[in-house]
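Many introductory courses stop at the sequence. We go one step further.
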Amino acid sequence: MCKRCLWLDESKPDYVAYHDQEWGVPIWDDRKLFEFITLESAQAGLSWYTILKKRENYRTAFKEFDVQKVANISEQDVDILMENKGIIRNRAKILATINNAQRFIEVQSAFGSFAKYQWAFMDFIPKINDIKSKDDYPTTSEISEKFSKDLKKRGFKFLGPTTIYAHMQACGMVNDHDNDCHRKQPLTDLIASLDLTKELNKETN
């Protein structure tokens, strides 16, 4: 039986699948990054598994995370979303998602892609952390503080340094799998072979 991260509840197959297939894999696709930012901002004050269970409902409610469509969600649409039991019915978070879509588009315009903007905080190299026990799990970092502060300056909402660190973990900016986790080495090998600058240029050419 393969070992997995200590934080993972292995009694939940969907949680295991997320851990094994997605968590910590470097992402440079803007739609996917917008999806993770939306879900992470919805998570504020809640558990990640609560949001993970509602992920498909979020995809439907927020236009398959098409940032242009989300940016144009109307006030009437917000009222409809507030009746949607499949998502977190928090008006401030729903409005933040629409606002963040609009700000996301501004970043894309300024940097060529959101991915280029985001990965520049890491100098385009994912960080591999030494995780031996539960006490070693970071919840924030100097980079997440800087990233969050810049997002706030640009008008983004519900994306504090802890939320942003979770986003960084999810999309592979940091590899925070336990040292004994079966995903640690494959992702470490992937990072070593990755020319992220080249991949980012592919996305925008």
